[in-house]
């Protein structure tokens, strides 16, 4: 059964007990982890599009008509690392 919401008055000085700080930290960490998981899943799905978005200007500047996927086939280990980096960096400015 759910606990009823606490109807405490807010402290005008913004003070909170330690338990409230820990509860807020737990909630923020849970939201951040959820964002990382979601963005990592999206990055895995759109992996080639993301890589081509970042490498296409460089390849065009040197006169290479091919995409990054055609120029260099990445092993799965590097692909997983790139997907993880995308998953960690994309939601970083999110609150």
UniProtKB/TrEMBL annotation:
It is a multi-pass membrane protein. It is found in: Membrane. The keyword Transmembrane helix applies. The chain crosses the membrane at residues 29-47. Keywords: Membrane, Transmembrane, Transmembrane helix. InterPro entries: TatC. It comes from the Bacteria. GO terms for cellular component: membrane. This is Uncharacterized protein.
